[in-house]
């Protein structure tokens, strides 16, 4: 596949066009399509479509295949487990892979206290259960989320999410007792301040919120992504979560860290919470934990995780044994091959190229992210900071035509986010960045 990188036919090619017709006839309109091709095979950082086009993947299934597509160690673990049993339902007849994943998570999730875990299928399910357990443990109803957040598409998760279109419009009414406070979006500070002279006004606003909006006596938890993914790869200042957590502890409010996109070495740390030096009460993980199979987890303080009685949380498919086998392989692989260093080095290379483009083009307003989770925000010009989603869309379309898979993010859909596999080979990373640079430079 490596010797065939490039676009050999127009996108979409003839076979993809036929499949697109079938898709239109059979798939619900609400399921979006960022790239009008159909995949034949994917390996490492490369994706081949049914028409023979080989594209470089800077999306990784939206941060799912941190270790690349079809990594041999993950595939072998899946194959071995699939030959034993596919499903029994852990709540009916338990199995060891679930136990081993929970054991590993309890060991590696930040926190110098006893921990327990529960496994589910999707990130949204992990978030829903985090809210359930926080409410049960504290006997308080309210949940506080951040502006620009994305936590999923189920009822509670959708309510916690900020972007109205396409995620919330027309889907109400929403879950009650959910509140929002400003996030640490330094490029568009709600307080018109600048870090560090701002003294983290956005974090300290939580104290005002408890006085003016909802008393801490009614708030079960604050939930936050350490780097807001769908919100535009917004990385908070280094001391933001420390201050936020101190306020939570002072008022007996739990802190839930949503590491669904940032976990498992995406940011240069096993979890981004380690970068911010916080030990959350609860942590949600998913996406890259199982190398491409659906698996999510909720890990936290043992006393909180034990707040629910038998049968009160769970799900038929939660902690599927094949997904658990893949997760164990991923955890072994990422630690054995030092994915932390890989993510840091990849991130440094990407960030350097994006900063150079920002210097050369007035329509790149901001470059931000942690590790191999980088983005640039497009604007009309750097002085006005007016969002420019049309320009982002045009650049991404050119990238697709040149053989690079990228997508947008952000409340205004004006952020180009880069989520290449953490272990992407240097030659594929460089070629992908060259394509991105060409697409940017063609923009007037």
Give a short summary of the structure:
With 444 residues, this protein is an alpha/beta fold.
What does this entry look like structurally?
The chain is of the alpha/beta class. The protein has 2 domains: 2-71 and 339-441, Aspartate Aminotransferase, domain 1 (Alpha-Beta Complex), CATH 3.90.1150.10; 75-336, Type I PLP-dependent aspartate aminotransferase-like (Major domain) (Aspartate Aminotransferase, domain 2), CATH 3.40.640. The chain is 36% helix and 17% strand. It is built from 14 helices and 17 strands. It has helices spanning 14-26, 60-63, 72-82, 96-108, 123-138, 155-160, 201-212, 240-250, 272-275, 302-305, 321-336, 339-360, 389-402, 426-441, and strands spanning 39-43, 46-49, 54-57, 115-120, 142-146, 178-181, 219-224, 227-228, 234-235, 254-258, 282-285, 296-301, 364-370, 373-378, 404-405, 407-409, 415-418. The chain has a 7-stranded mixed sheet with strand order 4-12-11-10-7-5-6, sandwiched between helices. Strand 2 and strand 3 (54-57) form a beta hairpin. The longest helix has 22 residues, at 339-360.
Low-confidence stretches: none
**How would a crystallographer describe the biggest sheet?**
7 strands, mixed
Give the N-to-C terminal Cα separation. 34 Å
Task: Report strand %.
Answer: 15-25%
Number of helices: 14
């Amino acid at each position: 596949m490596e010797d065939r990188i490039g676009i050999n036919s127009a996108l979409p090619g003839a076979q993809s066009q036929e499949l697109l017709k079938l898709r239109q006839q059979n798939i619900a309109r609400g399921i979006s399509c960022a790239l009008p091709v159909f995949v034949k095979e994917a390996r490492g950082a490369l994706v081949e479509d049914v028409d023979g086009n080989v594209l470089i993947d800077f999306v990784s299934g939206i941060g799912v295949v941190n270790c690349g597509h079809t990594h041999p160690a993950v595939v072998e673990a899946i194959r071995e487990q699939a030959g034993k049993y596919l499903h029994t339902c852990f709540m009916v007849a338990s199995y060891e892979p679930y136990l081993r994943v929970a054991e590993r998570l309890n060991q590696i999730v930040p926190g110098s206290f006893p921990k327990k875990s529960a496994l589910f299928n999707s990130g949204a399910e992990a978030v829903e259960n985090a809210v359930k357990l926080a409410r049960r443990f504290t006997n308080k109803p309210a949940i506080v989320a951040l502006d620009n957040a994305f936590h999923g598409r189920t009822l509670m998760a959708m309510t916690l999410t900020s972007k109205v279109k396409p995620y919330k419009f027309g889907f109400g009414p929403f879950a009650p007792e959910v509140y929002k406070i400003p996030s640490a979006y330094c490029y568009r500070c709600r307080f018109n301040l600048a870090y560090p002279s701002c003294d983290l006004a956005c974090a300290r606003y939580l104290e005002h919120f408890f006085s003016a909006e909802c008393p801490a006596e009614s708030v079960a938890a604050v939930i936050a992504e350490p780097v807001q993914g769908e919100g535009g790869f917004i990385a908070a200042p280094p001391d933001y979560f420390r201050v936020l957590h101190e306020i939570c502890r002072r008022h007996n409010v739990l802190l839930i860290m949503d590491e669904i996109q940032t976990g498992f070495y995406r940011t240069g740390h096993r979890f981004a919470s380690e970068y911010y030096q916080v030990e959350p009460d609860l942590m949600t993980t998913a996406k890259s934990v199982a190398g491409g199979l659906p698996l999510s987890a909720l890990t936290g303080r043992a006393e909180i995780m034990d707040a629910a009685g038998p049968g009160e949380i769970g799900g038929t498919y939660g902690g599927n044994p094949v997904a658990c086998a893949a997760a164990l392989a991923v955890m072994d692989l990422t630690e054995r091959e030092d994915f932390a260093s890989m993510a840091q080095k990849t991130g440094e290379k990407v960030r350097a190229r994006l900063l150079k483009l920002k210097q050369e083009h007035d329509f790149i307003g901001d470059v931000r992210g942690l590790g191999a989770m980088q983005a640039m925000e497009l604007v009309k010009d750097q002085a006005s900071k007016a969002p420019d989603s049309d320009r982002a869309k045009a650049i991404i379309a050119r990238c697709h035509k040149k053989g690079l898979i990228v997508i947008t993010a952000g409340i205004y859909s004006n952020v180009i986010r880069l989520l290449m596999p953490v272990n992407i080979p240097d030659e594929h990373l460089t070629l992908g960045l060259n394509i991105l640079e060409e697409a940017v430079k063609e923009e007037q």
